[in-house]
């Protein structure tokens, strides 16, 4: 956890993610990354120069096969840290899978979950939402954009959402998925298995497999690709305006 805390602190400082007086809603899916994020922020809170509050928000998607016992363990995880956890019930699963019958449900699902999360955060007086995206997610998103949208783009470490007046921060962007998974195992965090029928069968999973394949041939490729994303001064892309 020491290395994760160091990387979280560096991300917070690099992108000025946290300020005095912030009330931060941590999006809690129940997966390893959101629990590691909550635990790391709670540890950081004890020595951080900024004084801020934390609250967890879990968006209940409405899946009938949800892990109720696992959710009870997550509640205990929060109680041990004296951090409130809000569980917001929704019908997102029904809308995405039964009503809309989406062939590629991830985009719509993500937008609806993010909307619900920001709505609850605003209701609870939060000005920021922290998400558990890590360095591998940064790279996967870049590849998805490159392959399917024809552009070089990924999510920002910090972004302001004017419609909800919420700033979204991603303090784990310097943490690898392996480090996150290792911390969740070592500290026996109550990770909940996703009940989503599309879990492990998404385009994002395809990107992970592509990166794994590349790294078999070039072991350091992932680190180099992530480094390229973090250092835009290295970009050498075409610009028609410069040739006119």
List the helices and strands and how they pair.
Layout: H1 2-14, E1 23-27, H2 32-47, E2 53-60, H3 68-80, E3 85-89, H4 92-99, H5 106-123, E4 128-130, H6 135-149, E5 158-161, E6 166-169, H7 177-186, H8 203-217, H9 221-230
Parallel strand pairs: 1-2, 1-4, 2-3, 4-6
Antiparallel strand pairs: 5-6
Rg from alpha-carbon coordinates: 18 Å
Low-confidence spans: none
Calculate the mean pLDDT score and round it: 90
Number of helices: 9
Strand order of the largest sheet: 3-2-1-4-6-5
Shape estimate: globular
Helix and strand run: HEHEHEHHEHEEHHH
Q: State the end-to-end distance.
A: 52 Å
Name the beta content range: 5-15%
Percent of residues in helical segments? 40-55%
Main pleated-sheet profile:
6 strands, mixed
Specify the structural class.
alpha/beta
Strand tally = 6
Summarize the structure.
By secondary structure, the protein is of the alpha/beta class. Helix content is 48%, strand content 12%.
């Amino acid at each position: 956890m020491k290395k994760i805390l160091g990387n979280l602190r560096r991300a917070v400082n690099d992108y000025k993610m946290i300020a005095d007086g912030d009330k931060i809603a941590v999006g809690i899916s129940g997966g390893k990354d959101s629990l590691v994020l909550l635990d790391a922020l709670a540890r950081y809170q004890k020595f951080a120069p900024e004084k801020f509050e934390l609250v967890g928000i879990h968006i209940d998607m409405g899946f009938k096969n949800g892990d109720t016992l696992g959710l009870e363990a997550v509640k205990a995880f929060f109680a041990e840290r004296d951090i409130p956890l809000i569980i917001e019930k929704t019908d997102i699963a029904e809308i995405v899978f039964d009503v809309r019958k989406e062939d590629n449900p991830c985009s719509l699902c993500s937008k609806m979950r993010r909307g619900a999360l920001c709505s609850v955060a605003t209701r609870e007086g939060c000005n920021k939402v922290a998400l558990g995206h890590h360095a591998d997610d940064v790279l996967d998103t870049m590849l998805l954009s490159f392959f399917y949208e024809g552009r070089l783009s990924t999510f920002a470490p910090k972004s302001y959402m004017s419609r909800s007046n919420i700033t979204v921060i991603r303090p784990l962007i310097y943490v690898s998925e392996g480090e996150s998974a290792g911390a969740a195992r070592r500290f026996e965090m109550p990770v909940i298995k996703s009940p989503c029928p599309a879990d492990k069968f998404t385009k994002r999973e395809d990107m992970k497999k592509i990166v794994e394949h590349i790294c078999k041939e070039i072991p350091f490729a992932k680190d180099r690709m992530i480094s390229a994303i973090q250092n835009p001064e290295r970009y050498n892309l075409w610009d028609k305006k410069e040739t006119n």
